[in-house]
């Protein structure tokens, strides 16, 4: 499923809105992630940091957990991720460099993708450009549910 400009804008806007709810008092880096499903639904999440630092949850992982809780087990078409340091108004100032999902999040997103047999396009949003990369390019030779069948 190809995504049109309007859907793409809606997905990025959802990631931006999600980033406003980030709990990022330690890094100050607010991240928003939005997942687009084949029925048009969008599920978004933001990073949730922790005083132990290492237990912090990334936005993509939170979004996948919310989607799972809503019963979604596939149908993942696209993902948008953006982030930036908290600005004076509390909103993130979108970073120059497009945010690419961290390694752990690639694996978490892969679980949802493989369950539905899709290879979602990942929109890595920066201040001036959006880089589109297939999940399979971000995480080649992924280990997933099929390996355990
Ligand atoms: N972070 C995400 O939420 N997603 C990523 O893909 C990269 C990093 C978060 C983790 C931490 O709360 C903050 O950004 C700084 O690393």
Could you please describe the fold and organization of this structure?
By secondary structure, the chain is an alpha+beta fold. It has a single domain (5-121), classed as Cytidine Deaminase, domain 2 (3-Layer(aba) Sandwich), CATH 3.40.140. The protein is 30% helix and 26% strand. The chain is built from 4 helices and 6 strands. Strands 1, 2, 3, 4, 5 and 6 form a 6-stranded mixed sheet that branches. Bound molecules: tetrahydrodeoxyuridine. Tetrahydrodeoxyuridine binds next to strand 1 and helix 2.
Task: Tell me briefly what this model is.
With 149 residues, the protein is an alpha+beta fold.
Rounded to the nearest angstrom, the distance between the terminal CA atoms is 27 Å
What is the fourth-level CATH superfamily? Cytidine Deaminase, domain 2
**CATH topology descriptor:** Cytidine Deaminase, domain 2
Number of strands: 6
DSSP helix fraction? 25-40%
Cofactors, ions, other ligands:
tetrahydrodeoxyuridine
Number of domains: 1
Largest sheet: 6 strands, mixed
Q: How much beta, percentage-wise?
A: 25-35%
What is the mean predicted local confidence, pLDDT? 97
CATH class designation: Alpha Beta
